[in-house]
Write a structure and sequence with these properties.
This protein has 255 residues and is of the alpha/beta class. The protein contains nine helices and seven strands. The structure holds nicotinamide-adenine-dinucleotide. Nicotinamide-adenine-dinucleotide binds at residues 16-17, 19-23, 41-43, 46, 63-66, 91-94, 115, 119, 141, 143, 186, 188-189, 191-194.
Length: 255
């Protein structure tokens, strides 16, 4: 825990996609900084593993962020369990289909939009309702691909650009909601999405060498480094930060 007062002391924070990678690491950072964390993931088993790693300050809910009824029920359960909501890290997402635009199926496109864009919208809708009146903060996990393009990734790039539009639009409503809304834009982060699935895919492998070069810091990122940035944005230390796009990418998008 850093400093005398934990950054998220007494706050109740939802983390979506908490069963793996950035979501799991972020939930651990938030708990270390004093938060009680509500873990959402569609994979009950891995989500439960995260809950066990954190201990008593965490509760787990099986939730598919692309399903409105599932999101509405899980957010209502969090309020029942913890009595209130102060923040959320909307992180759940899937990787690109690794196809050129000309080869991309409409089904690939719809699946991507349903989870990576509509999923963020649905979570924000119910989280904002829960925090309206008491105030709070939302951090959405976009990507460097939210501000630049990449080959074989039009589905992902379009969804992540959409998350940035959604973040900015909702930030403009802060005077009505009392909720600050910001985004983190990670570079390549060594999570199961990347290490177990993308790095074995020939379409993605071809891009790795140029990507290494563009991460000016000289390495790829660790999931907790994104968690630390999200933690600060959720905390009262970022009380005047609203509508910001915080790159956490070792300089990837600075070039
Ligand atoms: N790893 C990277 O390099 C990188 C870079 C930029 C942005 N991101 C973004 O970070 C987020 C997390 O990625 P990660 O690398 O940790 O991936 P990951 O695959 O390791 O973890 C993603 C988690 O989200 C969950 N999930 C997927 N669909 C869901 C749904 N419909 N409802 C609820 N949970 C769902 C999965 O079960 C999994 O636990 C994603 O939004 C991703 O696009 C990742």
């Amino acid at each position: 825990m850093s400093g005398a007062k934990p950054m998220l002391g007494d706050k109740v924070v939802i983390v979506t996609g908490a069963g793996s990678g950035i979501g799991r690491a972020a939930a651990q950072v938030f708990a270390e900084e004093g938060a009680r964390v509500a873990l959402f993931d569609r994979d009950a088993e891995s989500n439960e593993e995260t809950r066990e790693l954190i201990g008593d300050s965490a509760r787990a809910w099986t939730c598919d962020v692309s399903d409105e009824a599932s999101v509405a029920a899980a957010v209502a359960d969090v309020i029942d369990a913890f009595g209130r909501l102060d923040g959320a890290f909307n992180n759940a997402g899937i990787e690109m289909a690794n196809k050129l635009v000309a080869d991309l199926d409409a089904a690939d496109w719809s699946r991507m939009m349903g989870i990576n864009l509509t999923g963020v919208f649905l979570c924000m809708k119910y989280q904002t309702r829960a925090m309206q009146g008491t105030g709070g903060a939302i951090v959405n996990n976009s990507s460097g691909d939210g501000i630049i393009g990449a080959p074989y990734a039009s589905d992902y790039v379009a969804a992540k650009h959409g998350v940035i539009g959604l973040t900015r639009a909702a930030a403009c409503e802060a005077r009505y909601t009392g909720v600050r809304v910001n985004a983190v834009l990670p570079g390549l982060i060594l999570t199961p999405m990347v290490e177990e699935r993308l790095l074995g895919n020939p379409a993605f492998e071809a891009q790795v060498a140029p990507m290494v070069e563009r991460h000016s810091i000289g390495r790829f990122g660790q999931p907790e480094e994104v968690g630390q940035a999200a933690c600060w944005l959720l905390s009262d230390r970022a009380s005047f930060v609203n509508g910001a796009l915080l790159t956490v990418d070792g300089g990837y998008t600075a070039r």
